Amino acid sequence: MPRKSSTEPRIYHLHVENSRKRQALFHLTEPIYAAAVKRHRALAKKLKVTIGWDGDILDEALKTADFMINSSPPRERLRERAPHLQWIQTTGAGIDGLLPLDWLPADVALTNNSGAHGAKAEDYCTMALLMLQTRAPAMFANQRDGKWVPIFTMPIAGKTAVVIGFGDLGSAAGRAARKLGLKVIAVTRSGKAAKPANSACKVTRIESVLPKADFVVVTTPLTAGTRNLLNRARLDLLKPTAGLINIGRSPVVDYDALSDKLEKNELAGAVLDVHNPEPLPADSPMWTTRNVIVTPHISCDDPRYMDFLCDTWFANFARKLAGKPLTNQVDRALGY
Amino acid sequence: MPRKSSTEPRIYHLHVENSRKRQALFHLTEPIYAAAVKRHRALAKKLKVTIGWDGDILDEALKTADFMINSSPPRERLRERAPHLQWIQTTGAGIDGLLPLDWLPADVALTNNSGAHGAKAEDYCTMALLMLQTRAPAMFANQRDGKWVPIFTMPIAGKTAVVIGFGDLGSAAGRAARKLGLKVIAVTRSGKAAKPANSACKVTRIESVLPKADFVVVTTPLTAGTRNLLNRARLDLLKPTAGLINIGRSPVVDYDALSDKLEKNELAGAVLDVHNPEPLPADSPMWTTRNVIVTPHISCDDPRYMDFLCDTWFANFARKLAGKPLTNQVDRALGY
Question: Which CATH architecture has domain A118-294?
Fold first, then answer.
């Protein structure tokens, strides 16, 4: 795209790259972009937008693109192929699939879609906490088998939830737990308490809080530091009556150890929304592990997902034009 | 039991009758009574207590009993067999099994255990509303079949719940719904709004609110007036995206019509805790009805159930000694 002379307003090129391999929910289609333009008319006038599918126009678009929305950006010789590229927006919150970030030119910003997930994550965690407290995994197995086995459980208020990670999803889990009358302990890098947690603990001291948990909610991104954080030894610190919820990333928890413990009744239950690989294969033993509820990575996404992404992107674009720092920037050192 | 002379304190005879056919949760055993005595020492000193099982000492006990705790009181010639009986306490909230009350002498009070169920009912309704919103019934069926089928749904806030009956259980359902950000319409006899409902509607005008419901929560006792209240014609007024929760009594809803509509996708789902008969037989088609979650009548009871019953009973006993009216009295005309 030829650059305009300096007396005319600068037009930026935004290239949107979609992958048909991803769910339709995560496709930024022409109609979704057109709807976003109606909400951001003035900003949209400063853009030329191209929308590609599975790389069909990628190489051509890269030549002039200033910005890109792309969850699997091309990593090979990126600066050479995309000389004007300043900013890549991913469509998900987790960028573990892009690590390590050594392919990313130092002057290209990387932003994620953190913040899109709060309301759904809060609903999901509220439901999952109550399902664990009510022993719903056992009830659903009994329904499958046509067995009437009443299990009476106490109200959930007063129990303790340990929430691992306390960003967008962790705060949502914290709100869910507080709404149900639970005490919330946040496990974070800093160990500084953040609302709505009642208290916090450094991740380096996680062993001190795991024995207190009636529920553990895993919400962390996957990084070198969180991989296998809940390993077998740490899972062994949990009460046998405890339940585990994972809405973060599956490799943060040793699922083999988790399954062993569930089968032996050394843990009361688990509600798992994230798996490895996804889709979970039909022959995975996880589907039928004792006292597990498997959901297909739906905890944090709602049908308006890409509308929200567009709104977040336009708000960031306005910041960029105003010379302000972008929000939702990935920290290269931390990897999220 | 011989009456003491008037200079000595009056000792009352409380007979507790248990049925081994009922779940252990509903047995008022010696240890449970002994624990209650520790909480109510002064009052307990005014009592002689007998505990019978399946009628083993019933006839003898009736001769002197002033009070009885019994969910299936003897109906035949009750006044003749129990000349001193003043008050019967049932262990459940619903007394539909005792209707009509023509067997009950006019001067014998009948109280139920309403009020024991609020906290659990609130938890259950919170969970059930979110399960319907998240389309959990379909997800659990997919888990059973090892199928990964992501279904993305909106956050629940802003939806409308129509709660039928607004006593102890209905208020709990209302609190659950409000906590999740829902609008609550209570359907009651009087049609007067009661907190935490946003508005109310007379049961005679129920047709006007059913089309507004995203969720219907049935909490009414079973009486002549509520039997088949949600018949096929009224279920037909619901949106096809609506879900139904029943924690009251099953005959309030036409389950055959409900099942038909669920199988045809004319309703989105149902979470049913009450059934007919209970236990639900292993060959009941309800276990496998499309988009139904069956739970075994556990929504409103917790393991402290009989402790709570004892506390309620002692509080009422204190009222009786003070000449005050009993709480939780069943209205003979209304039948609940």
Answer: 3-Layer(aba) Sandwich (3.40)
